[in-house]
């Protein structure tokens, strides 16, 4: 499609239709007649060679093509709203409405995501946050197309290109969480990798073992962990660890978060320490819109407020 020949006023109709999914309601919001909206939709369908919306008893349902345009249109409309404002007036998130989509590992559901949500509810109450499960793959197309605004990547192994910028939010240390039934519960020393590998474990990760940075590292020396239970999230860990002899490995901040609701569990450090970075990825193309820049700063601020779970190596509490 040649964008130079498209009446850009039609995009406003499409954006409102994606929100309302009703010709009558879209017409009311646009201050035009329903027939004008129907005429605009007919032109849009010809331009995109797609029905865009299908009439059903539940309303006008967008097609896959229409849904793919939803996020780019949202960014475009928000940017135009920002451009209309006073260039000398600082951006105020409390006066805007935005939806941001982030890909994040499940471990962050207990740490960074709650901290970020608190920031948003306080300073940007009309903003929404949609979190989807992080996968070990390239997110360049997702980020540059606007489908994803930010990616929170563990271990620095997410492929990136020239159009992706990144910054490190924090360093995680892999620790073990154990309950009273575990053989390592009473230990006051850091657990060696050899002893660590003798323990039967829970695997609470959303990606396969073959994609986990620790298991990849162990496999290079023909060593492997033994899993008695694999689960897709961290939700059941506390209860299982309290009532069995199993242990679970996780980032130290996540372990500290679980301890808040399961205080009888213990954090045990591993030696030599296994560490990895949590990085923030975003589109590096052009000048960022104010909302995007503000959100990036909010994520960084939220990350700085999440406390470490393992004691510092030289502190009195360190093993």
TrEMBL record:
Gene3D superfamilies per UniProt: Periplasmic binding protein-like II (3.40.190.10), Winged helix-like DNA-binding domain superfamily/Winged helix DNA-binding domain (1.10.10.10)
GO function term, MF aspect, one: DNA binding
Keyword terms, alphabetized: DNA-binding, Nodulation, Transcription, Transcription regulation
Matches recorded under Pfam families: HTH_1 (PF00126), LysR_substrate (PF03466)
Keyword Transcription regulation: yes
Alphabetized PROSITE patterns for the sequence: HTH_LYSR (PS50931)
Name of the featured protein: LysR family transcriptional regulator
Species whose genome carries this gene: Microvirga aerilata
